[in-house]
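Archive record:
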Amino acid sequence: MFLQKNKKYFGVLLFPIILVLPFPLIVDSIALTIALLNIVFAGILQNSLRIKDWFKEGKILLGFGLFIFLLDSISETFREGELQFLVRESRVALLLVPVIIVLARDKIKDIWNATSTGLIIGVLLYILYAYFFLFIFYETQSNRAFELNHYLIYDLYNYLPGAYHHTYLGMYFTFSIILALEFYRTSGKKFWLILVVFVFFNQIFMGGKINLILSALYLVFCFPYKSFTKTKALIFAPVFLLTVLSVAIYFVFRSELWKTIKFSFENRLASWECSWEIFLEHWKAGIGYGGINAYLFPWGGSDALSSHNQYLEELVHYGFLGFWLPVFLIIILSISRGHRIYMQFLIMIIVIALSENILSLQRGILFFALIN
């Protein structure tokens, strides 16, 4: 019934499912292309704004999209002293998707719930696929027995076919929890609370640490208390949250997740310090995209060879032009007031970007473009 109701927008609904599942990035890009073509050919644009009206309302978004698209060319021109033209294909989605989405924004709202459900379906399918793989892996390839602990993350990352970094997976988990809480707020169906518990529980073993902390904070501060009567809100909500968080804390300590936090934090401090020094030395035009590893290793011997901070990553690559990211996020955060889910999404992106380079790879950019 779900697909029957939204079959006109099947390509749009399929994209978030494909994005979450461990397919190659080229498949994700193709799925995005199909989704955008679906928007166009489904007739959504027939009643859209005229181009001049759209430009008037979307000029900030368009301007930033063009700037981001041309950022590599601009910084390379500054560094070389002559006109250069470079395009990172991973940035194309940040230009194309907002253009079509803004044109079709009235219709996109009609299928927002279905698109959000697609993301949740993708998360659930990933979890089931991961457990199916782990069952086979521990039975046939590993000398260790299956155990629910945080090290499942590394077994999945190293051996799961098509696996991608748990930072992105954790980001999908966290946002699916946000969406499920919103669906519970609007429908009152207990199914969504069960789903929240299921996803949150599995995030302990499959998602990144910062995302797990964010999910716990969202559970506490964004829980739909008003969905209950005053009596139930005073009794059920605290008991529910306390139980969920207590179980999570138990497994965090049981799986020795806390032992990895110290290493991760020290590694990030070294990477942040090094990245800041690189920016100060190359603040005018940066060092160019992809050159940070050559600086990080001899400077501090960072094991991860990453800035572990999207804001610093942009500053290192593009110099002072890298300040586009915090400015862009502040602008869209300021104009998104009143849109509760979108603000929660932006806050999630802003916080995760402090410790991970989530917009440096296509998987993070496609997710950002999808929600925008």
Q: What stands out?
A: The two ends are 27 Å apart (CA to CA). Residues 59 and 162 are 38 Å apart (CA to CA). The chain is about 75% helix and 0% strand. The chain has a mean pLDDT of 77.
